[in-house]
Design brief:
By secondary structure, the chain is mainly α. Helix content is 73%, strand content 0%. It has 13 helices and no strands. This is Tellurite resistance protein TehA-like permease.
Length: 322
């Protein structure tokens, strides 16, 4: 029974790692290091479980692995690795964070190609993971660059940040706007894409390389991305209030991740741009994200997570009815 449970987890289970690691990152700078450490341990344990399942599928059930790899939630393998890696870097584990960066860069092109190749004309919110995983690599590279004074990694971060912005624009052009009203949680990944793009921009702005026009351009980009993220946050929240979706499945962790990432991005932007009012806003948003994490932990155990159940299937671009 235990073996069947962990092997039946869908790729979307990676959203738990992303949400928990993001919250851990956000708690550290506000003086809640013990809670941050607990979150990092939880995220790391879940990541190891999912990594083992990923490897076993690849080695023993190639057809099942390929079927999972073709869907957007498969990209949580990359995104979760990068967010967890950033948390490890901030916690003083640079070797583990560096290994996470290398692993993410190695897996990223493979899964990205699979997902893009099977994309439909209109895509669900989960498809924004093409941006999230790319920007996650940028954030991890930039975090390591700052923590270890490896400034050459700033250029790696810049390349992936530019790529992530381009992928976000492409995803928004094909996003099925009906998902704002009908999505079961993963529609929030659109806001998560903007949030992690803003975080990467803020970290780029904080690097020593950029001066003059380049620095000013990064400041404008950072504030613009934060503004777009907050607008998306409010619109998605209003849609949830107007059209409540009380039934829960594992995709609700895709809601918690953007809530936490928005808080982290807003606080990072406050430091990088010198707009102090953003820091207080980021702290409030972090408390909201923490409450959402606790609520989701309490709500989901009442729902049986079974891959064959329609409500728990990760949405993907091949599901044209979404």
């Amino acid at each position: 029974m235990a073996q069947r449970w962990w092997r039946d987890l869908p790729p979307a289970a990676g959203w738990f790692v992303m949400a928990t690691a993001t919250l851990s990152i956000g708690l550290r700078p506000i003086g809640l290091e013990p809670l941050s450490a607990i979150g990092l341990v939880l995220a790391g344990g879940a990541w190891l479980l999912l990594a083992a399942d990923f490897a076993l599928r690849l080695l023993s059930d190639r057809q099942r692995w390929r079927g999972a790899a073709d869907s957007p939630p498969a990209l949580t393998a990359v995104a979760a690795t990068t967010v967890l890696g950033a948390g490890l870097a901030l916690a003083g584990w640079p070797v583990a964070a560096g290994a996470a960066l290398l692993l993410a860069i190695a897996v990223w092109p493979l899964l990205l190609t699979f997902v893009i190749r099977h994309g439909g004309a209109r895509i669900p919110g989960a498809a924004f993971l093409v941006c999230v995983c790319t920007q996650g690599i940028a954030v991890l590279a930039l975090t390591l660059a700052s923590a270890e004074r490896a400034r050459w990694l700033d250029w790696v971060g810049l390349v992936f940040w530019c790529g992530g912005v381009g992928l976000a624009a492409a995803a928004f052009a094909r996003f099925d706007l009906r998902q704002v009203w009908t999505g079961r949680g993963d529609q929030w990944v659109a806001a998560g894409a903007l949030a992690i793009s803003a975080l990467a921009a803020a970290e780029l702005l904080g690097a020593d390389h950029w001066t003059g026009g380049a620095q000013q351009a990064l400041r404008v980009f950072t504030l613009a991305l934060v503004a777009l993220d907050l607008i998306g946050y409010v619109l998605l929240l209003l849609a949830e209030i107007v059209r409540p979706r009380p039934d829960h499945d594992i995709r609700r962790w895709a809601t918690v991740f953007p809530l936490g990432m928005t808080a982290v991005a807003v606080r990072a932007a406050a430091v990088a741009t010198g707009v102090p009012g953003l820091s207080a806003l980021g702290t409030i948003l972090l408390l909201i994200a923490g409450a959402a994490w606790l609520y989701t932990c309490g709500a989901l155990p009442g729902e049986r997570i079974r891959p064959n159940r329609p409500s728990s299937l990760p949405s993907g671009p091949r599901r044209r009815n979404l």
